[in-house]
Structures are given as C-alpha cells and as structure tokens.
C-alpha cells in the first residue's frame, strides 16, 4: 500500500477525504492556489477544498520548488496589478526577494529599423512589473495556502469526473497521484484492489486544471484552438553586460525572443545583474534542433538571433520546451461550475499577459462570490455566474486579441506588413498617448 508524504496510507487518505464543501477548486497550479488564498482572505467562513493530482514536494523556504506541472520551469512577468494583489494578501514581502523589477522595456524587429522603448521613470511609476521564477512563486504561495484554516489542500488525488445537478456539483476522485499503482485509471493497489472512487459535493466547483482541462470536457464546454506551429525554449542565461532592469522583446522572422531580468543567484560566481530569463519561440522542428545543441552552439545561435544589445551570452542553463497555442473557451460557466486560468484561455507568452489576465479573472470572481455571500445567495447560481462571465468579456477579448495580433503581425515576413510595423515602431515615440497606453497594458492596469 502506497504511503503518502505525511505518512498516511492510500486507504487512510481515502477515508479522510471530505464529502462536502462550500466551494471546490480543481487544480493546484498558480491560478488555483492564488484563488484559494483570495477566498481565504475575503471569505474565511467558506469551506474550500483544493484538489491537485500531483503530490506537492516538501517546501523549503530557502530553495525554489522542484518543478511541477503547476509551477514549472518558466518565469512570470508579474504586472503591477498582480503585485498589488499579492501585496493585499500580505505576501509581497516574501516574494520580493525572488523578483526583479522591470524599469525599461525595449522592443525591436531584427533586421529592420523599427524600435520602441518604454522607461518607467518617464511614466512616473516605480516599475512596469517584476519578473519571478514560477518555482519560487510556488514555495511562497503553497506555504501560505497551507496556513489557511478555511482551505483544505488535497494533493495526490486524481479527479475522475465532474457533473452538475440542480442544487450542487459533484467531483469524483480517487486517492493517489498519477503514476501511483493505486491512482491510475483501472489500476489496482498492491493487494490487487481497484481504487475506490470518492464523491465530493459543493454548491460551486471552479476548475483551474490547465489548458487541456478534463473538467472543461466533463462540463460540455467547447474550446477554440490556434496552433502557432511554434515551441518556446525556456532557460536561464548569463550575459557579459548587466541587465539594468531591462526587458527585451526581439521579434525575428523565426519567432519572438523575450529576455527578462532575474535576481542574482547566490554562490553562482556571476557578476551582478547578468542573470536573465530567456523565452525563445521557434518553429517546432527548429526548436527541437536548437534545444539539442551543446551549450556553446546554443549560445552562438542565440547570439546571431538576438544580437549584441545584452552583450555576449556567457552561460546557458537547462532548456525546457513548451508548445505554443492559443486556446479560448467561448463559454466559461455553467450552473454550479466554471473554468478559470488556462482552462478558460491560454495565450502565447509574447506579451507576458497570461497569468496576469487569469489573476484579474480570479479577483473579479471573488468579488462576485463575496456579493453572493453578502446577499445570502447561492454561490452556484446560474445568473450570478453569467454575470461574472459578462464582467470579464471585454478584458479577456482585448488581451487575447492584443497578444494574438503581436504574434501574427510580427511573424510575417511580407514586405508591406514588415514596412508598416516598423514605421509604427519608429513613430512610437511621436504618437500622442501611445507610450502611456502600452505602459498600462504592460502593468495590467488597462482595465482597472
């Protein structure tokens, strides 16, 4: 019988699973955990259960979280609105040491004359946002959530179904993370027994189980997909020049390159301010070739693609690959359930808006749930969930359109389109209101 990290057996863990909650969150990634924290602060009387298939590793405040599907190798550019949300939760003092502020944004199109710059001081703000590794975000957020008495965190449980009824939603689950003999579909435990399904009921279920959400399918919600034919190579690099808190967005004919400042790594022996996050989007076949290159060859190819603005690329970390797609669920709520985070919309990382948009969704959802509690209303009421959907439509549509247009507009090598976009970049400094408008997008304040 498989033992859980807390020492309980699978059988004992199954017996301890609750049968009822006020709200269930399916998915313990960045969005699901943040939603749990927001609910614990704003609505502490609600009994919230968070379900995550992966078993969370032991938390060490001195080390980043080992990579999990929900807190992976990528880095996140946290907008000012997102930072404010974490400040309101009382968590920013713990997050700040692991984050690096963005004071400058530099946008260019390789091989062309167009260039645009943003300076935080000129916009009268401290920064446009801060860059943080998801693994450090996971350490702080998970530790905080496990201190919340109103939230029960159940990791290592696999959701096998979700259905809605007139007065509640039902989540079917079994104890055991994917990969455990007792937790696989149709599998058996060490004694040859099939895992026993458990049913958890709640007036409302919020599914934040990722881009390929099974909950979305169980709820009968469709999704539209656009495959960009690109894969993002993500790694950490060191440069010969300090980053000076500058975020670069370099568009090339092969795909965009984002180079973001990161905190110094203690004991790494690198000069200050030379550690950076790289997100390099390439056609998928090309990405596979480049990912497999030796470090020196990878750095040389990156140098040719990016240029010398950051100096020489002197070190390259382990590379991770993520396919790039746009996924949007036109409908995100049904009576008793809704989808959130990447289950509702998953964006190309070119504009750095994905998590920030999801966080704004979560903030608005909590406001609607707080109003329902104040009015003594049903949390899963269909009309209230439709009102939440309507409240988020404009912000979602604009950010999705903005991100998608950047990818498609700068991926084309058509001479006429190339000329137009470079005229736009070159004239950026002269267009009244252009810088403040783009700055508000970057800071996540365009709809606040």
Write the layout of secondary structure elements.
Elements: H1 10-16, E1 23-26, H2 30-42, E2 48-52, E3 75-79, H3 80-88, H4 92-95, E4 99-101, E5 104-109, E6 115-119, E7 129-133, H5 134-146, E8 151-155, E9 157-164, E10 169-175, E11 198-202, E12 204-207, H6 214-218, E13 224-239, E14 246-251, E15 257-261, E16 275-283, H7 284-291, H8 295-306, E17 313-316, E18 320-328, E19 333-334, E20 337-339, E21 345-346, H9 354-374, H10 382-411, H11 415-426, H12 434-443
Helix pairs in contact: 2-5, 2-9, 9-10
Write structural notes for this entry.
This protein has 448 residues and is α+β, with helices and mostly antiparallel strands. The chain has a domain at 1-98 and 133-223 and 329-412: FAD/NAD(P)-binding domain, CATH 3.50.50. It is 32% helix and 26% strand. It contains twelve helices and 21 strands. It has helices spanning 10-16, 30-42, 80-88, 92-95, 134-146, 214-218, 284-291, 295-306, 354-374, 382-411, 415-426, 434-443; strands spanning 23-26, 48-52, 75-79, 99-101, 104-109, 115-119, 129-133, 151-155, 157-164, 169-175, 198-202, 204-207, 224-239, 246-251, 257-261, 275-283, 313-316, 320-328, 333-334, 337-339, 345-346. The strands form four sheets. Strands 5, 6, 13, 14, 15, 16, 17, 18 and 21 form a nine-stranded mixed sheet that branches. It has a six-stranded mixed sheet with strand order 8-2-1-12-20-19, with helices on one face. It has a three-stranded antiparallel sheet with strand order 3-7-4. α2 (30-42) runs parallel beside α5, α2 packs parallel to α9 and α9 (354-374) packs antiparallel against α10. The longest helix is centred in the last third of the chain and has 30 residues, at 382-411. It is globular. The model is unreliable at 1-15, 181-187 and 416-428 (pLDDT under 50).
